């Protein structure tokens, strides 16, 4: 009896499954073509949405496109291009975001829309994309949306990629950057020492009053200051190095340091933070005397190499037993933009006598592997090197690229400072 | 189970008010919380669920003498899944925007306790006509509840109603109502309101989420510590 | 690769917590979270079932349903497979690991037709994860569920000792408490950004 029941159960279940399966297959036959049509129609729908007065669309076969660019179509009527993008929020990495953007032949966005976006967090499906209209490849003034920065960053990067695809293939011209963007970019040009390994300026804004000074920034590693000046409506970006020298650029990148019209403004910038902290200088002198092994009767005087805007923040001449040598302090940005102080002692011919770091050598790989470095062996590798014989391979710490780069930068900068001393003093 | 009032109208009405599946029996909470962020998705979900409920009730009632007891749950699941898939395909073809909005929750109708519960409790024991009405009633109750919740959450959470902007509220609203915490909160308040009404009418109040929709209700009842659960409407301590 | 997996794992526990932000698994969440040991038992069972379910449904989708163009059978096939799988697991547990069965077996039937298991199985496919990513995601979702359950059981224990207005007693106050817990999880969004930048 039980066996009969069991068999009956299985049969009934199987039959029901089969019937349902057939019913589903039938409905699928009916609906699949419609669904497919919807999807393809949807694609062209969005094209017309972003470029309403286009005549028709033809795909442009291109190679070497950024990953987010899926396809590029051009309007057969010559009005511009439509780029299909697909990206993901780096952070949740869940659903894809499909973006269709129409860019006119003048290099400006004429229309943009989200074609698919099923994230639960919404950054404004309709409103946010609209903030991109009329922008060119510089995308100046486009904000990220608070609270969903990763999605909006992904969005913005994708749109950027669309421009890259078109510009690199010569289809549209590059856009114009806004003044804010240009000023931002000039900060690391005016004061190269304030840049980290990615080229980002690590600055803190400070309050400075002056008739020409609009904004003032101090480099986090103490290598100098950056000022944004306004001279009768013309913005200038001025860098003042650790030794009091200034360099000044106009927004188009020309060096206007010696331009008489701006002399007053530049002088104001140089004077703004001219008072050096004595405590800092003393601390450096202590370091130098310790690392130079100079003895108690050595004299250490501070000197100023000319034209230095790099990471060297202190330069000293050491005289001991009639022998002259030099000490340099360089503060570079290491892992996570933390400043690392390095001290170099050079003999009078510019060869490294000693290389020391004043704090911890912060290694990126430490955070993952508990990596240890044989510091004394590492530093010994620098001894005797001059600017000519210096090879960056000696700075390599395996698995700690940021730190290695930082040390390389510091060493190069110190050699540059020494060179400036030699040529400046005519020795 | 039934206080079997054989009158058709009463079967219908019971599902809407007295035994509202969401607010009284507390079943099918997942889509209720998830899809009531806006009126359109709430109504869409409600109608989809209602359709599946009615169809599956009818079919299961038709097959009630054929399906053996041992495999009844899998059979119900197959039937319900079948109808859910049909609704999915039709919606994808004819209402693709709504399909995108409902997303995975459309497929999850198949495990909605309401549908499986009604199949188990009613459709398997009653004739087709009554089952259809029961499905319709419960479905309407579900739909109406979702509609009310969706309205509250959208109107006060975003200042729009089905996308239509409301003048004052569009500027002053509580976006939190639209988000998950808001969903929990509104749902809790609605149940509190219903409890108050029930208390007034002297009916017992449910203190735990209703489980009898689950096919595993039997297992649950027997094995859980009885003092932890509170008495449900159906004589639990039988 | 590791970074992707880490992001998937951590975000499904903290930020996209299936219970508190996607509303899946509400029934066990509300029904079984009163006592800590029940909550833990339920949570562990859910993790276990989810992993099994994903391990089975993902290959079925990729190697059978997609290859044969039978995508529309996904709902039906998945739910049947999950139901059968859980039954099978329960029987196996009873036979070979009776101690484990007495600890977790109670919850298994409750999970079979629960939206959270089916939901994560379907979402893994929709999100286009490969097999490893799907497993990691399911593990994360399960742990997220457990995490939410344990947290919530603590909240409910406290609630039991407070004076709740009569109309709010029982389910309503539980839901309001859940809304606050859900709100607190929003705080994690910033943590992840910072951690992985």
Summarize the structure.
The complex is a heterotrimer of chains A (427), B (238) and C (197). Chain B has 238 residues and is an all-alpha fold.
Plain-language structure description:
The complex is a heterotrimer of chains A (427), B (238) and C (197). Chain A is of the alpha+beta class. Chain A folds into three domains: 57-168, Sufe protein. Chain: A, CATH 3.90.1010; 179-272, no CATH class; 278-425, no CATH class. Helix content of chain A is 34%, strand content 25%. In chain A, the strands form three sheets. Chain A has a five-stranded antiparallel beta sheet, with helices on both faces. The longest helix of chain A is centred in the N-terminal third of the chain and has 49 residues, at 2-50. Chain B has ten helices and two strands. In chain B, a hairpin with a 2-residue loop joins strand 1 and strand 2 (164-165). Chain C is mainly α and 197 residues long. In chain C, helix 4 (74-96) packs across helix 5. Chains in contact: A-B, A-C, B-C.
- What oligomeric state is this? heterotrimer
> Could you tell me the number of beta strands of chain C?
0
Total domain modules of chain C: 1
Order of helices and strands of chain C: HHHHHHHHHH
Please summarize the sheet with the most strands of chain B.
2 strands, antiparallel
Taking all Cα atoms into account, the compactness measure Rg of chain C is 18 Å
**Rg measurement of chain B, Å:** 18 Å
pLDDT average of chain B, as an integer?
A: 78
């Amino acid at each position: 009896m039980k066996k009969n029941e069991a068999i009956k159960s299985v049969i009934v279940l199987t039959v029901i499954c089969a019937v349902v399966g057939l019913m589903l297959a039938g409905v699928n036959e009916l609906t699949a073509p419609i669904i497919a049509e919807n999807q393809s129609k949807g694609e062209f729908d969005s094209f017309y949405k972003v470029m309403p007065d286009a005549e028709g669309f033809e795909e442009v076969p291109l190679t070497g496109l950024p990953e987010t660019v899926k396809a590029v179509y051009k309007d057969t009527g010559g009005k511009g291009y439509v780029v299909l993008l697909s990206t993901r929020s780096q952070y949740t990495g869940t659903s894809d975001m499909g973006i269709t953007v129409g860019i006119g032949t003048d290099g400006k966005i004429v229309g943009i829309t989200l074609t698919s976006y099923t994230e639960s967090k919404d950054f404004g499906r309709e409103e946010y994309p609209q903030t991109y209209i009329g922008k060119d490849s510089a995308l100046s003034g486009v904000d990220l949306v608070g609270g969903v920065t990763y999605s909006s960053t992904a969005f913005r990067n994708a749109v950027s990629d669309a421009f890259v695809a078109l510009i690199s293939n010569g289809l549209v011209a590059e856009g114009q950057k806004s003044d804010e963007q240009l000023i931002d970019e000039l900060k690391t040009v005016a004061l190269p020492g304030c840049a980290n390994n990615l080229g980002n300026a690590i600055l803190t804004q400070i309050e400075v009053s002056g008739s020409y000074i609009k904004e003032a920034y101090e480099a986090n590693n103490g290598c100098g200051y950056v000022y944004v000046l306004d001279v009768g409506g013309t913005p200038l970006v001025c860098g003042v190095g650790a030794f009091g020298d200034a360099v000044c650029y106009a927004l188009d990148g020309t060096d206007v340091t010696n331009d008489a019209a701006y002399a007053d403004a530049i002088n104001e910038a140089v004077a703004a933070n001219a008072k050096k902290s004595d405590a800092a200088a003393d601390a450096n002198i202590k370091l130098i005397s310790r690392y130079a092994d100079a003895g108690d009767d050595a004299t250490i005087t501070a000197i100023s190499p000319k034209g230095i805007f790099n990471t060297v923040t202190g330069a000293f001449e050491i005289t001991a037993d009639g022998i002259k040598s030099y000490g340099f302090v360089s503060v570079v940005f290491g892992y996570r933009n933390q400043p690392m102080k390095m001290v170099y002692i050079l003999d009078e011919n510019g060869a490294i006598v000693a290389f020391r770091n004043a704090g911890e050598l912060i290694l990126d790989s430490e955070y993952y592997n508990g990596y240890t470095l044989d510091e004394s062996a590492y530093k010994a590798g620098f001894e005797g090197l001059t600017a000519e014989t210096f090879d960056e391979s000696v700075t390599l710490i395996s698995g700690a690229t940021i730190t290695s780069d930082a040390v390389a930068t510091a060493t190069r900068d110190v050699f540059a400072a020494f060179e400036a001393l030699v040529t400046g003093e005519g020795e | 189970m039934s206080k079997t009032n054989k009158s058709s109208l009463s079967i219908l009405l019971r599902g809407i008010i007295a035994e509202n599946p969401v607010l009284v029996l507390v079943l099918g909470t997942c889509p209720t919380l998830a899809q009531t962020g806006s009126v359109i998705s709430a109504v869409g979900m409600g109608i989809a669920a209602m359709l599946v409920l009615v169809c599956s009730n009818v079919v299961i009632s038709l097959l009630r003498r054929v399906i053996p007891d041992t495999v009844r749950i899998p059979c119900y699941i197959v039937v319900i899944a079948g109808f859910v898939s049909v609704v999915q395909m039709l919606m994808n073809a004819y209402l693709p925007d709504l399909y995108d909005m409902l997303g995975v929750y459309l497929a999850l109708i198949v495990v909605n306790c309401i549908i499986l519960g009604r199949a188990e409790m009613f459709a398997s024991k009653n004739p087709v006509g009554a089952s259809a009405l029961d499905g319709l009633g419960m479905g309407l109750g579900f739909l109406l509840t979702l509609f009310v919740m969706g309205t509250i959450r959208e109107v006060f959470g975003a200042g729009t109603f089905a996308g239509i902007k409301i003048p004052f509220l569009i500027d002053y609203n509580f976006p939190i109502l639209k988000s998950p915490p808001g969903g929990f909160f509104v749902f809790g308040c609605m149940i509190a309101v219903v409890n108050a009404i029930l208390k007034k009418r002297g009916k017992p109040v449910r203190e735990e989420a209703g489980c009898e929709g689950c096919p595993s209700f039997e297992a649950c009842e027997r094995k859980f510590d009885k003092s932890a659960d509170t008495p449900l409407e159906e004589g639990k301590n039988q | 690769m590791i970074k992707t997996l880490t992001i998937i794992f951590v975000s499904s526990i903290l930020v996209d917590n299936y219970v508190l932000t996607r509303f899946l698994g509400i029934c066990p969440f509300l029904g079984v979270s009163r006592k800590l040991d029940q909550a833990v038992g339920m949570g562990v069972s859910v993790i276990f079932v989810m992993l099994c379910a994903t391990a089975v449904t993902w290959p079925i989708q990729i190697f059978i349903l997609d290859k044969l163009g039978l995508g529309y059978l996904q709902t039906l096939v998945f739910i049947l497979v999950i139901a059968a799988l859980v039954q099978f697991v329960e029987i196996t547990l009873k036979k070979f690991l009776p101690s484990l069965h007495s600890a977790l077996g109670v919850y298994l039937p409750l999970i079979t037709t629960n939206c959270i298991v089916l939901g994560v199985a379907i979402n893994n496919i929709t999100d286009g994860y490969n097999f490893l990513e799907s497993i990691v995601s399911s593990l994360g979702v399960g742990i997220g569920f457990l995490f939410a359950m344990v947290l919530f059981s603590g909240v409910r224990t406290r609630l039991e000792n407070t004076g709740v207005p009569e109309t709010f007693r029982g389910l309503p106050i539980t839901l309001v408490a859940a809304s606050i817990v859900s709100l607190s999880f929003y705080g994690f969004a910033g943590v992840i950004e910072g951690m992985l930048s």
